[in-house]
Amino acid sequence: MNPTIRDATDADLDRINQIYNEYIVDRHTSFDEAPWTIAERRSWFDAYNDSLGRYHVLVLETEGTVAGFASSSPFRKKAAYSSSVETTIVLGGEFVGRGLGEQLFVALLDRVAAAPVHRAYALIALPNEPSIVLHRKLGYHDVGVMDEVGFKLGGYHSVLMMERNF
Asked: Fewer CB near the terminus (10 Å): N or C of the chain?
């Protein structure tokens, strides 16, 4: 069965939340410390109303389920940053390492490239070599490391900032 990539809908929010919450509880890759409620996820999703087409939430379906999601969101709230986005990709643990993330991320970047976007940024909590490899493969380059910027699971974690030009 070939994967399907499409815009996320309200019906996907429970699964998106389930996938994301996997990364909160026992992994350092999300700096959230408490699982999101469905109300918080709905509020997050409602913020993706952008008439210029810069902000997206896409899901990848395979084997009859949503395997992951990718999003482009405002990089920062100040107006001067409006031509930049932050990109995120998250797969359910059982779907990692199967090439699905790359397919999903390419679809997101195609959407971003068609919008009035100048730069895309990714913030990757270290260590996370698979994410770094994927981002580099898709045209991101290292901007810098914020050393020990977050504290989670009993230790400090650094974050690599990566950038992609459009």
From this structure: N
